[in-house]
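We treat protein structure as text, and this decision shapes the records that our systems exchange. The tokens are whole numbers drawn from a learned vocabulary of local backbone shapes. One such record is reproduced below, unchanged from the form in which we store it:
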Amino acid sequence: MELYSDFKRKDDISRLAYVIDSEVKKTINIMEICGGHTHSIMKYGLHTILKDKINFLHGPGCPVCVMPVKRIDEAIEIADSPDVILAAYGDMMRVPGTDSSLIKERAKGKDVRMVYSPLDIIKIALDKANKDKKIVFFAIGFETTTPMTAALLEEVISRGINNVLFHVNHVLVPPPINAILDSGDNLIDGFICPGHVSVMTGSGIYNDIPDKYGKAAVIAGFEPYDILSGVLLIARQINENRPDVEIAYKRAVKENGNMKAQALVNKYFTLRDEFEWRGFGNIPKSGLKLRDEFKDFDAEYVFSKELKELRLKTESSQTGRENAACKCGEILKGKSKPDDCPLFGKACNPENPVGACMVSFEGACAAYYKYRNF
């Protein structure tokens, strides 16, 4: 069932909100996994329109937000190596590590560059001035962006480019959801699942939500009518006691997803035994790494000595830990909201972010700060 065609104008959004209000008998706790949903909810005031019926909780769906301090410290360590150009997406540049950030390292003279697309790496690598440099791409993202990194690696191999390396930080959506539900201390009734991830994966990756945990799951797009359509479908699942995975974004999402993109990812990537998430700790089978046959492109393999020394240093010191006052980890698990944090809007703001949730464009704290007066 898709409501997009029926509820796509501003007056229809009001009608849809009215239908939700009339059908929801008691407050429903809904976690929107993706930060893009969070920003739309705040920008269009959906949390206010439905405040008596829907309590939106903000999940771990921002790839910048979930990167732990240790991974940023590793990127900084690699950037400090001779003849290295470290390239990363814009938001990642400002996320604080233990003592610094990538943008601060650039200010100190390190060759750290911001890229808008993985294909920017090709341009850097082919520049004659960089022929003796190692170009290290700090690759992040969920299932949406992993195919682009795989496509970059395929292009690098096909062109015979031998100076590009990948520091792989690609993670998966289902494992942190399972970790939240396995914790036993959540109040979540249903999930709004990310539309762009689902374009790649299809709907099957969410089957555990209803089958194992008895919760509602609806894949939605990012416009206000998309989100409200998802909310209504969740409400109806709850009212009818029929937890299921439904697609409220059928104009973009197919049940099987993008099979070509999935095959490309599987060609180059495999699961890690575990990956550390900000606020969660290590989650088994939640991250990806390059397959062994491509290890010569793996920055963690090439810089294994340097990173081993960094990890030993981290284990014997106070480095690699989050700011104790920052509630980013609790926000990512849906246990707190940004304005519950004592740093929010004070010591922590977009100009001087303490936590990743304020740095990232998709971060919940950034959304609350930007739209706090709406």
In short: The first strand starts at residue 28 and ends at 34. The two ends are 32 Å apart (CA to CA). The domain at 69-170+258-315 is CATH 3.40.50.11740 (Rossmann fold).
